[in-house]
Amino acid sequence: MIPVDESRRKFLGTTAAAAGALALGPGVMLYSYAEAKAGSGAGERTIRWGMLVDTTKCASGCTACVDACNTEHNIAPAKLPTDVQWIRKVELKDERTGAVHSMPVMCQHCAEPPCVDVCPTGASFKRADGIVMVDRHTCIGCRYCMMACPYKARSFVHEPTTNKSSVAPRGKGCVESCTMCVHRVDKGGTPACVEACSDAGHRAIIFGDLNDPNSEIAKRVKAATTTQLRADLRTDNGVRYQGL
Amino acid sequence: MAATPRPAPPANLFPTAGVEPRGFWALAIAAAVVLLLALGAFHYLEEVGHVATGMGNEVVWGLPHVFAIFLIVTASGALNVASVSSVFGVKAYKPGAALSALLALALLVGGLMILVLDLGRPERLVVAATHYNFKSIFAWNMILYNGFLAIVAVYAVMSLERRWQKISAPVGVLAFVWRIILTTGTGSIFGFLIARPGYASAVIAPLFIALSLAWGMAVFILVKEAVCHWYGVPVSEEMRVRLRRLLGIFVATGLYLAAVHHLTNLYWARQTEFERFFLLDGGLYTVLFWGGFVLLGSVVPLLLTLLPRFNSPRALLWACWAVVEGAFAFLYSFIIAGQAFPMDLFPGYEVRSGFRDGVVAPYLPRLPEFLLGMGGVALAFLVALVAIRLFKVVPRDEMPAVEVK
Amino acid sequence: MAAPALAKPPVLDKAKGEKCVEETSVMRKRHMDFLKHQRDDTVHGGIRGAKHSLAGCVECHANARDGAVLGSSQHFCQGCHEYAAVKLDCFDCHTSHTKSAQASQKRGVPR
Asked: Does C35 map to a domain?
């Protein structure tokens, strides 16, 4: 009954937000839910979480982001085509000039995600703050989203999982992908890969709200030329690349 | 034909009465064994996961889907004879209408079973039934499949019951429209995949419709000949010629649309990489497409059905067999190659990664997925077999003299 | 997982704390509804930290020795679900151990 709740919540949310905005004046918005303690990012309709990958800073051969992701979500390093991988390092060589680039590729958190369009049950969905994820409670494991994803960002859990993590519940038979570390973001944190990249001294990935003009990511996207992978598909990715 | 207060039927009206088809139980048991093996494979996959299959994170749909889509597309085509009878009102096709409808039901049930058993969480089928994403063509297909089953079931009952045969035409029309939409939906499952050069095309939907016409006709002819042979009912030569000609036309249409699909792809620079792979360098996929679909599945049946010198019952059976073989070759190359070919995320760059970016993904089917696929065929076979015997669905072609009315 | 032979109410691990987030009678009947409701809020709405959380169940109801709600017919979730003959699949994906139990468990290779 998710759709019913959602629309009701949206309606209530819009009404409350409008009333609040009127009462509090412009620039001040309060948004809360009866049962929620922590402030929720997903409720904020103005937020669009995104990442900017600076390929000039990303070091070839460095896998700090991949390792951090694996540790965070209890994923074993991928070797076989059946192994799960949420983020991967890609090495590029320009066919004409020979210029090389290195960078991570993960779920691009599209504004128009093909995986969400094709999912028969609506398990593949986009949160109000732009994060694209799979609701494993309603995923039936048909893998159509993996067929539709232009970025090869999704994995199917081919085996039973052991040693389960409290932050990233995952199990056999469902499709999964990068959640932009939603469990951290909802608590005001930063995705594990971003943190690891920074700890490794590269600062090649930055995370933030693309819709907030004062955020670092928004300023960078404004100042420099950035690209979205497969921009021809007009999926409007939340992950952008610089220096490509 | 029959008046309402029914007179005692003349002896020759029910030539199948009392005929006990030979080998019924042997066939039924054989099919049941294959079905049980498939259920065993399903249980095994439930325990260990899809790691026991050849499918992975690149080739996510494999052999089970080849079987499933063959059965689903063919189910729509198996309805050909019923459509010609009810929609276009051609009397000669009427005796085959019931078999046509039952066959369509059986094939679809078999195909759906495979799709369901291959799910990662098949026990959540109820979720699929209660949570619909109406933007998903897959969700639409679930409605289309169920609608097809319901409509064709009603049609089948009507065409089996003499009293209702007269009013079955509107249901036949509905079934015809529905099957066209159904196969449009099946084709669009692939056609809507914008990111994959092997699939993204509006031609896929009409291509699938054309293929369904051919494949369904081939399977129908094979089943009809078998059933008539089984019950010792003669097949009219006139009818054979008609079906043969139709089969030829359908095969030609399928081949034509497949050609259009690849030619349009060749026209766009960004698609030529894929076409080079598929048509020239794809190894097994290339062989299956050219040798399996084009040569065996299209050229051979075209020669056998359209050249007068091959006008024999045996040649017709060979043509049908070739069409079915070609169907599997087509689907295997279409479904697997479309996924195995790497997506081009970075045009103009050479790509390397620990996740097989830029390389053709491997796929080697393994026993459990083959058994799943065979299980769908076995279920379709079993359903058809039991239904044919239970309802004595034997198409008795009326001789040309009787046909005129 | 052998079910008890007789329909005797199961003897389950005692919970920590004084009382549950709802009345016991209400929880018995409706805990799945609470969990489901909050799960949708959390997954889709990003609302975290509300009171009807599965992790919350585990923290209070885990076995004192191994910190788990599964493992034997005495363990809280498993014991009652066996008794009621209801399939329990939360822990196909979610952890059945408390945070502290997990920390001490995390010696092997994570998977």
From this structure: yes
Q: DSSP letter at C111? A: -
pLDDT tens for each residue of B17-64? 566 778 899 999 999 999 999 999 999 999 999 999 999 999 999 999
Among B45, B46, B50, B186, the residue to mutate for chain A (most A Cβ within 10 A): B50
Q: Do the interacting molecules here have an ipTM over 0.85?
A: yes
pLDDT at A7: 52
Q: Is residue C111 part of a domain?
A: no
Residue B290's SS3 state is helix
Distant-in-sequence, close-in-space partners of B248: CB < 8 Å, separation ≥ 6: B301, B302, B305, B306
Q: Is the pLDDT of residue B15 over 80?
A: no
> Distance (Å, rounded) from C-alpha A50 to C-alpha B128?
31
Per DSSP (E only), the strands in B23-173 are none
- Looking at the partner chain, which of A40, A162, A166 has a beta carbon nearest the beta carbon of C46? A40
> Taking CB atoms and an 8 Å limit, are A182 and C91 in contact across chains?
no
Which CATH number characterizes residue B373's domain? 1.20.1630.10
**Across the interface, do A33 and C45 touch by the CB < 8 Å criterion?**
yes
A169 contact residues in C (CB cutoff 8 A): 93-95
Tokens 């005129």 belong to residue = B404
Buried residues in A106-133 as b, exposed as e (16+ CB within 10 A): bbbbbbebbbbbbbbbbbbbbbbbbbbb
Q: Which pTM was predicted?
A: 0.89
Domain around B310: 22-394
- The answer to whether residue C47 sits within a structural domain is yes
- For residue B17, being part of any structural domain is answered with no
Q: Which domain covers residue C75, as residue numbers?
A: 28-99
B125 domain residue, yes or no: yes
Contact B290, B220 (CB under 8 A): no
B404 within a domain of the structure (yes/no): no
What backbone torsions phi and psi does residue A239 show, to the nearest 5 degrees? Answer: -100, 125
Suggest the residue from C69, C93, C102, C109 to mutate for an interface test with chain A (most A CBs closer than 10 A). C93
Q: Which long-range contacts (CB under 8 A, 24 or more apart) does A29-33 make?
A: A33/C41, A33/C45, A33/C47
- pLDDT tens for A22-73 read 444 333 333 333 333 344 445 545 899 999 999 999 999 999 999 999 999 9
User: Taking a C-beta distance cutoff of 8 angstroms, is the pair A120, A140 a contact?
Assistant: yes
Contact residues, chain C, for A38 at CB < 8 Å: 47-49
Q: Which chain A residues are closer than 8 Å to C109 by Cβ?
A: 76
> Which residues contact residue A10 at a Cβ distance below 8 angstroms, ignoring those fewer than 6 apart?
none
Within 13 Å of residue B281, how many CA atoms lie on the same side as its CB? 9
Low-confidence ranges of chain A (pLDDT < 50): 1-4, 15, 17-41, 44
Q: Is A121 on the interface with C (CB under 8 A)?
A: no
| CA of C109 vs chain A CAs: smallest distance (Å) | 8
Using CA atoms, how far apart are residues A124 and C13, in angstroms rounded to an integer?
37
- Taking contacts as CB-CB distances below 8 angstroms, the residues of chain C near A41 are 46
- Count of domains for chain B: 1
Give the pLDDT mean for B212-223. Answer: 98
pLDDT tens digits, one per residue of C10-59: 888 888 888 899 999 999 999 999 999 999 999 999 988 888 999 999 99
What pLDDT shows up at residue A1? 39
Best C48, C54, C100 residue to mutate vs chain A (most A CBs within 10 Å): C48
Model confidence at B9, pLDDT cuts 50, 70, 90, reads: very low
Q: Given pLDDT bands bounded at 50, 70 and 90, which one contains residue B14?
A: low
Average pLDDT over residues B335-355: 93
Whether residue A159 and residue B56 make contact (CB cut-off 8 A), yes or no, is: no
C7 to chain A, minimum CA–CA distance in Å? 31
Tell me whether residues C49 and A136 touch, CB distance under 8 A: no
Question: Is the predicted pLDDT of residue B2 greater than 50, yes or no?
Answer: no
